[in-house]
Amino acid sequence: MSTVEAGNSEASARESTPLLAVSLSETDLEIAKNDTREPYLAVALKELRWVASASSLTTLALVLQASLFFVNVISIGHLGTNELAGTSLSIFLIGFIANAPTHGILSATETFCSTAYTASQDKTLVGFHLQRGLIAVTIHNVIVAPILWKTESLLLAIGQEPDVAKFAGIYMRNLLLTVPAFTGFEACKRYLQAQGIMRANTVVLVVVLPFHCVINYLLVRSPTYGIGFVGAPISTVISEWLMFVGIIIYTRNSRAMNTWGGWDIRAFRNMFVFYRFAISGVITICTEWIAFDLLNIGASYFGAAQLAASAIALNSISFISYIGAGLGFGTSPRIGNLIGSAKPRQARIAGNVAVGLSLLVGMMCTTFIIVFGDWWISVYTADPDVANCVLIGFSEMTKLQGATVKLALSGDSVVLRGAQRGNQPPPERTLGLAFIQAPRLGNATRGTPDEPLALEAREYLRRRIAGKPVRFVVRHRAQSGREYGSLYVGEDTADIAMKLVHEGWARVTDSARARASRADADAEEADVVAELVNEEEFARRGKRGLWEPKPKPSRPRLTTFEGDAAAFQKQHGGRELRATVEQVRDAAALRVLLHLPDAHQMVTLRLAGVRAPAESEPFGAEAKYNVELRLLQRDVRVRLQAVAPGPTNGVFVGTVSHDAGNIAEWLVASAFARVSDGAVSLLGDGAAYLRQLERTAQGKRMRIWRDFSESSAPTSFDATVIRIVSGDTLVVREAEGADRELRLASVRVPRAADETQGGYAVKAREALRRLCIGRTVTAAVEYRLDDSRDYASVRCGNTDLGVNVVERGLASVVRARPGGTRAAAYDELLAAETRARDAHSGIHSGRPLPPPAPVDASENATRARAFVANWQRVGRVPCVVDHVSGGARMRLLVDRDNARMTLVLAGIRCPRAPRGDDTTSAEPLGAEALALTTQHVLQRNAEVEIESVDKNGGFIGSLFVGGRQNWAETLLEHGLATVLPASADRSPHRTRLYAAEDVAKEARRGYWATHDPTAVEEAPREAAASAVKLQQRIEFLDVAVSELVSPMSFFVQIATPASVAELESMMAALAAAPPPAPVSKFAPTPGQLVCACYTSGDQWHRARVVQVLPDKYEVLYVDFGNSETLSAARVRPLPAQFTAKAPFAQAAQLAFLRLPVDAPDSGFVEGYVDAAYAALRPLLEGRQLVANVEARPPNAPLQLTLYDPELGRPVLDKSVNAEVAAAGYAIVDSRALSSRHNPAAATAISAIVEDARTAHRGMWEYGDITTDE
């Protein structure tokens, strides 16, 4: 037979059998033998020491255990009123339905265990009774768990607020996970206490509680790891299970294991008898809990604030009651042990001691709450509404009534506000301060002015009572029903009227004096009036307030705004103004009294960046009430941002800041207001923070956002910009190779065809092109409208493209409807538009800008020839590739001449590209060549070098993109073009073109992948090569340098006597018959010959128009080579008799040489250009020279070798060309036509250049600056 069976046999194995199986006479003998006979006081002192010692640990353990929920309530109380209210309901519900019955059942278990431990010979009965208690508690919890899981539905069914019910349901569902751990911990605790082991739970809680505080903060309040409200119950779950594990470990390593006989199936027998014994404990504890629950349920019907206040009060009471419970739990095992030891008298004395000690502790706790009540409430919550409800509840228990001051009407009249009931506004009452009178404020409607010092008296009262909890007592009522009484602020025992009279801001009324002097006067009132009279005498003697003989003049109080609102805002808008909120019209519209240096000005202020519901709309009244609670008659700081639109004068838009924070931010964060797009741009950098608060409030789905449905966040992707369609549309190429057209979200540029603003559209497109063409951008599609286009936010580096064009004034912001689609950087766009508007930039300047109309230089061959000479003279002309129609054919824009041209790359033949959807006419590799050119050349900055013009007006030349190599070479290297010898051999880039083609041949790329390079006929190449192997030209001319354009470029005149005489004759004819002014407006085009009046000397010359400017023309004097810019009045049509003669000045350059400044990889320092000028001027200017024409390139300057005739026979080493090379200011141009015509001379000049480089002369002074040619 087991030990448990033996024990049960001794007790006749029935639950109804007495625990002590002895006869009555034996019991009396046992008591007489064991019970104490010491004096009562001595036993009481002994038991006091024992109870205090044992209960201190138990009390500490209970307080520590209660601190788990105490910490939760504190942390949640600072999250919000609804969160605290929901937590309160869930804690009390689980306490009443689950935890209270658990305590009741386990109290019976403790009684069984303690008695068995003392009275039974078989100590394993203690463990046996523990098993029965665990079985009973587990059955109960399994039954009630589904009910607690439906807490939210249960609360909604009994009419609770949805937000409160939602938070209660969330908390409860998480808290259910603590029930097994809580049950196990409590059972083990009772099991140990029954054996006199009191410190186990204390040790465990001392370890777990600090951890709970830390993890509660991390999960609830931490900015990094916090998850908000749900973190509180999760931290409780973790801590409860740690407690359970801790007490199990403690039990396993204690002497309590001696009473554990293992699990026994017979513990399930006769459970009905166990329940019958435990039911009384369950009823007792549940009765206590249901009283608290009824208080909470009742408070919940008055509103979330009242429920939160009830939670604070009841949590405080519960916290204090745990001290008494600790005394009970510590005393109960002691009494059980004494009874089991047959010491009933000592047990009775121990119980009396415990009761007395509980009364003493209760009185001490009550005193603490009364004295430190304000501080105690502030620990729980910072919400003034909840705090006021708690204080008002305390005041209701006394003679005085509690309220909160809504506002001070005047120096002797206030409006009081009671506690809020449900969602209804709280009741209000007006109270006049009894027995005194202060100066009256005026009434604008009635036309009455303020009495002297009326505002000062009101301000004195306002600063001391506005928004504060007060206690008041009504002294009497007038016949009109108005109430008069005494008012006490906070815990102050002095009537506020006493202070007003003491400071001289009010006087005692005559009627009060008369009432107090009557024989039947109330003694209390007479004493109050007498004290007021004494205070008045004090103020009168001290000449305070009203009694000052010569008071300072008061600043007037202006209740209406008269004047220019815009000027007022401009004067005061740049700084913060001190103000007082006098009225709250709705949550986002206030009447404020600005305290200006010369007056107190009343204005209406709308909060910038937010829009709150009207009072009649859902949550409007609640929002207004909360703003009144925080701002009404408070001192604030106001910044006037703008004048509100509309006919109403004196209405401004601005911000209101209080010491506690910005009210607009609080409204948005509390889901009482939404961000208003119209004025959010006024907030600058604060707009982003306001948006963040709005997103957080939307995530909580509370109040105005309760039905909010969050759309999926846009996904971003990286792509390369390949084309700018317009100022708000671009085409990008994704990593997968697909092209995608994107429009900038919330941005709109003017139409390009608009006659007044089309120019801004072109500028916007150009701004985007310069910023991002060819670069990688990050795009996020924000929305898609009915037109099926993707509207995206696009960033290039740290620059938002939409913000960039808007800030330049080249685009406007598309206004979004509330809740409608918009760009993620919508606030930044609005702010950028405001800055552009303030700066009067672009479309906000009010100036029309029609779209530009560039001249089509390729309209026909005649128009093209008018431009070619000027562009050839310039050399490389800056341009933009506007359109690509083929691999080697494109349209360029030349901004400097307001012209556009069609360019065909010289020296190559590229396959024909497809046109649109028509691919039938396309040649192999044509599409690939088009794609490559489009990807790398389209809309890029480039330079074009013109060689000639075809018969259709197209220009033939070379294109250099980004300062890199000739684009024709790139096409050749990729095998997407072949060299065209007839054109390439005339090109200065002939050598590089053939070399690029050889690269493609060797790599078998493109065209050469299917064609054998060795099978190509060599005859055309040889014929072309022989065509350029010309003999050295010998063509000497007498010339004079008329204009030095650059160190290598100049104009020469043929200096023969016949040529000079012909020029002088023509100039004399022009001077004798100057051209008449044209009858109609004369508008020459670039390239056209005109008659221009030279500024120096006012003499008319033949000239060619180089560039057309507004009301001006840049002209080149064709007979001398110099150029200048003239007004339109100095340019006239050239008479017909002067147009036939060829220009007397011809463009020329030094043969064999060039400056390395044009080579991108040369490293040539610009400063050497001036030195080269200085070296050339004495050799060329004003001198007659002999020139040998080394080469005459078509449509290009002459290439000359210049000699000084005074030096005798022309020798190359003594030529001007050699002197420039020897001075170190030029290098040999091996690609020049002159170098190929006369290679021997080019070699000789190369030797001179090498000598200059070795001697570090000129530009070689710091070493070699060129790369190998």
UniProtKB/TrEMBL annotation:
Superkingdom per UniProt: Eukaryota
GO molecular function: antiporter activity; nuclease activity; RNA binding; xenobiotic transmembrane transporter activity
GO CC, any one term: nucleus
Ranges annotated as spanning the membrane: 50-71, 200-219, 225-251, 272-292, 304-329, 349-377
Domain TNase-like: 399-549, 575-707, 715-846, 875-1010
Keywords: Membrane, Transmembrane, Transmembrane helix
Pfam families, A to Z: MatE, SNase, TUDOR
Tudor domain mapped to chain residues: 1083-1141
Record-level GO BP terms: mRNA catabolic process
SMART domains: SNc (SM00318), TUDOR (SM00333)
InterPro entries: MATE_fam, SNase_OB-fold_sf, Staphylococal_nuclease_OB-fold, Tudor
Homology family: Belongs to the multi antimicrobial extrusion (MATE) (TC 2.A.66.1) family.
Protein name: Staphylococcal nuclease domain-containing protein 1
Organism name: Coemansia guatemalensis
